[in-house]
C-alpha cells in the first residue's frame, strides 16, 4: 500500500505544481497585456527586472521561514545561467519587435525540438516513436491556432535564433543545476533571482530605450499603472517559482510541451473577454489537435521506454539517487 500512496502523492503534487504554473502564467499575461496595450507601459525588460526584485524579496522571506537553506552553487554556473536567462528575456522582446507575430510564434514552437536536441546530446535521453509523434501533433495543433502572417528579415531571424537557443538553454539549466547540485526550487531561485534582478535593473532601461526610443523614468505614471505594475510583480513571484518547480519535477521538454496548454488557455480567454474575432473552425480544430497531442505526450512519455536516459550524466548518481535528489525535492513538496 505504501508505494501506491507515494505514487498518488507524487501525482497530486505534479498536478498542483502544473496548475500553479498555468494559473500564474495566464494571469501575468493578462496583467501585462492591460499594462502595455491599454496604458502604454512598453518597458518589458525593466518590468522583468522588477519581477525579479519581488522574487528576491520572496526568497528572503522563505529563507527566514526555513524553506531556503544555505546551499552551494559555483559562481561560474550561476553567471552562465543568468547569461542565458537574460539573453532569453531580451531576445524574446527583440524577436517580437523585429518579426511578424506569425514568425514569432514559429520561433517559440522551435524551442521544443531545440530542448529535445539538448536532452539527447547532453543527457543522453532517448525518445520512443510515440513520444516523438505526440510532440509533432502538439506543434502542428499550436501552429494551426497561432501562426498567421509569416514574414522574416535578417536581423529578425538572428534575434529569433538567439531567443530560441537562450531560452532552451536556460530551461535546461534549471533542471541540470537542480540535479547536479541537489538544489530545491526555492534554493536555486534564492541563488539566481538577486543576480537577475540587479543585472536587469541595470541594463533594462537602456535596452528598453533602444527598443522603444522611450525612457522609463519619463513615463507618466498614474495610480492605475502603478497598481498594474505591482500586480504584475506579485504574480511574477508565483510564475518564477512555479517554472523552477515544474522544470525540476519534469524536464524542460515536458515543460515546453505542456506549456502550450497556456497558449490555448490564453486564446480561449481572449475570445471570451475580448470578443470572438479571429475564432473560426481551423482555430478550434488546432486547439483540439494540440490538446490531444498533449494528452498523448503525457501517456507516451510515462510508458517504459517512452523517454529514458541511456547513461546518467553525473558520476555521483549512486550517492545522490536515494538521498540528495529526494532532499532537493522536499521543499517543493511543501508548496
From TrEMBL:
Listed InterPro entries: Sugar_P_trans_dom, TPT_transporter
Region Disordered, residue ranges: 302-335
Compartments (UniProt record): Membrane
Primary localisation category: membrane
Sugar phosphate transporter domain segment(s): 23-297
Pfam family, one: TPT
Topology class, membrane: Multi-pass membrane protein
Ranges that cross the membrane: 12-31, 43-66, 78-96, 133-150, 156-174, 186-206, 226-245, 257-275, 281-300
GO cellular component: membrane
Keywords: Membrane, Transmembrane, Transmembrane helix
Protein known as: Sugar phosphate transporter domain-containing protein
Origin species: Spirodela intermedia (Intermediate duckweed)
Amino acid at each position: 500500500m505504501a508505494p501506491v500512496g507515494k505514487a498518488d502523492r507524487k501525482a497530486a503534487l505534479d498536478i498542483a505544481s502544473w496548475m500553479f504554473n498555468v494559473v500564474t502564467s495566464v494571469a501575468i499575461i493578462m496583467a501585462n497585456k492591460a499594462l502595455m496595450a491599454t496604458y502604454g507601459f512598453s518597458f518589458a525588460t525593466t518590468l522583468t527586472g522588477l519581477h525579479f526584485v519581488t522574487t528576491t524579496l520572496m526568497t528572503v522571506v522563505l529563507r527566514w521561514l526555513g524553506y531556503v537553506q544555505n546551499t552551494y552553487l559555483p559562481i561560474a554556473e550561476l553567471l552562465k545561467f543568468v547569461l542565458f536567462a537574460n539573453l532569453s528575456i531580451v531576445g524574446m522582446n527583440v524577436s517580437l519587435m523585429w518579426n511578424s507575430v506569425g514568425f514569432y510564434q514559429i520561433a517559440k514552437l522551435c524551442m521544443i525540438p531545440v530542448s529535445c536536441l539538448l536532452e539527447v546530446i547532453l543527457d543522453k535521453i532517448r525518445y520512443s516513436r510515440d513520444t516523438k509523434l505526440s510532440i509533432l501533433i502538439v506543434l502542428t495543433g499550436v501552429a494551426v491556432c497561432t501562426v498567421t502572417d509569416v514574414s522574416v528579415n535578417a536581423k529578425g531571424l538572428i534575434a529569433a535564433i538567439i531567443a530560441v537557443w537562450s531560452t532552451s538553454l536556460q530551461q535546461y539549466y534549471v533542471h541540470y543545476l537542480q540535479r547536479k547540485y541537489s538544489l530545491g526550487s526555492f534554493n536555486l531561485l534564492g541563488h539566481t533571482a538577486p543576480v537577475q534582478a540587479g543585472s536587469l535593473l541595470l541594463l533594462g532601461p537602456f535596452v528598453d530605450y533602444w527598443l522603444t526610443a522611450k525612457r522609463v523614468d519619463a513615463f507618466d505614471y498614474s495610480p492605475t499603472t502603478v497598481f498594474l505594475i505591482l500586480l504584475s510583480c506579485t504574480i511574477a513571484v508565483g510564475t518564477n517559482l512555479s517554472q523552477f518547480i515544474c522544470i525540476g519535477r519534469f524536464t524542460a521538454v515536458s515543460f515546453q510541451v505542456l506549456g502550450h496548454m497556456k497558449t490555448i488557455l490564453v486564446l480561449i480567454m481572449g475570445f471570451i473577454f475580448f470578443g470572438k474575432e479571429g475564432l473560426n473552425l481551423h482555430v478550434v480544430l488546432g486547439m483540439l489537435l494540440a490538446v490531444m497531442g498533449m494528452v498523448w505526450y503525457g501517456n507516451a512519455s510515462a510508458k517504459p521506454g517512452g523517454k529514458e536516459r541511456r547513461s546518467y550524466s553525473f558520476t555521483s548518481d549512486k550517492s545522490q539517487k536515494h538521498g540528495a535528489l529526494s532532499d532537493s525535492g522536499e521543499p517543493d513538496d511543501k508548496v
